[in-house]
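Thread title: Can someone regenerate the structure for this chain?

I was given the following input by a collaborator and told the matching structure tokens would be attached. They weren't. Posting the sequence so someone can regenerate them.
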Amino acid sequence: MPTSMSSGKIPNGTKKDADMARTKQPVTNQPEQTGVAPSLPVIMTVDQVAGLLQIPKSSVYERTRFRGNGDSTPPLPHRRVGRYLRFFRDEIIKWMLALPQASHPRKRKYACKQRKAAA
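Best answer:
Regenerated them for you:
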């Protein structure tokens, strides 16, 4: 290590090199980490939610409206930011998993087709 450090002169290097020599740690522009990485939620737009659920955008808007008519499907969890809708990815996935599965796996026979077949 050069002896001219105490005099304040920087020998053959930059200020960053001098800082590294003094602190024995690399100088970075990133904040110091405390060991716990902050986990920020993933925020999604209507287009992204429609892509995730593989449904049209109009269905996403429709499912965000609350209708108290006894519909078995709860509304999509969302936040309104001004006039825009935003969604948390984790909440959308939980909503999807909470939906009931189809109780009738076979296609239903319609009454009008049965009448035509009987005639």
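Strands lie at 43-44, 79-81, 84-88.
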